[in-house]
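TASK: fixed-backbone design
INPUT:
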């Protein structure tokens, strides 16, 4: 699990801010932002969220989907991950391998939503373990809230139309759930298992 206190504080602050605006008779200007939409199930449409790359650049879901060099299919895979959790060590290499297998065709990325993580720490872990998957940084945990993810290794497969086609575990035992979902989506089919319980 990650950033529990941080998330609770942010949720309480948002609630109080919106409550204050409602009392004043003012509508919230942030009503259509990514933090006010929950996409937790297969079939849900994902908004064009904003996020940072490991080298500090700002990017969006649409930009990731439309990058012909790294994502010709428009399919995007996000696996919640961080540099210090034990369960992440179980998927480090498989996630890195998956990103290389689909390189250029599908954007397979680690998404770090843990409070306090720094790019240099992440880069050090990647170097030490010779991991090659791209890493996105969501320092405020907004995307974890958006997707309703409470545990690391939770994986989301998003198709080229920004619709969630798989939500759940990266893998379970010998079952490569994320890879199976990718193959199904690329073939225009529904994944055999399109939603599983989190296990991090």
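OUTPUT:
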């Amino acid at each position: 699990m990650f950033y529990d206190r941080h998330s609770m504080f942010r949720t309480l602050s948002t609630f109080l801010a919106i409550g204050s605006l409602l009392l004043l008779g003012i509508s919230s200007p942030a009503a259509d932002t990514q933090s006010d939409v929950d996409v937790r199930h297969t079939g849900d449409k994902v908004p064009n969220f904003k996020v940072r790359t490991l080298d500090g650049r700002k990017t969006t879901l649409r930009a990731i989907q439309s990058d012909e060099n790294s994502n010709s299919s428009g399919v995007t895979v996000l696996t919640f991950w961080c540099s210090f959790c034990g369960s992440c060590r179980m998927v480090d290499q498989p996630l890195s391998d998956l990103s290389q297998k689909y390189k250029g065709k599908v954007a397979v990325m680690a998404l770090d939503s843990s409070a306090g993580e720094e790019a240099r720490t992440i880069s050090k872990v990647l170097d030490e373990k010779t991991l090659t998957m791209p890493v996105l940084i969501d320092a405020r945990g907004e995307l974890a809230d958006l997707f309703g993810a409470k545990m690391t290794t939770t994986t989301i497969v998003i198709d080229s139309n920004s619709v969630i086609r798989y939500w759940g575990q990266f893998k379970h035992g010998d079952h490569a759930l994320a890879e199976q979902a990718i193959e199904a989506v690329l073939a225009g089919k529904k994944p055999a298992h399109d939603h599983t319980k989190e296990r991090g």
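COMMENT: Confidence is low (pLDDT under 50) at residues 3-35.
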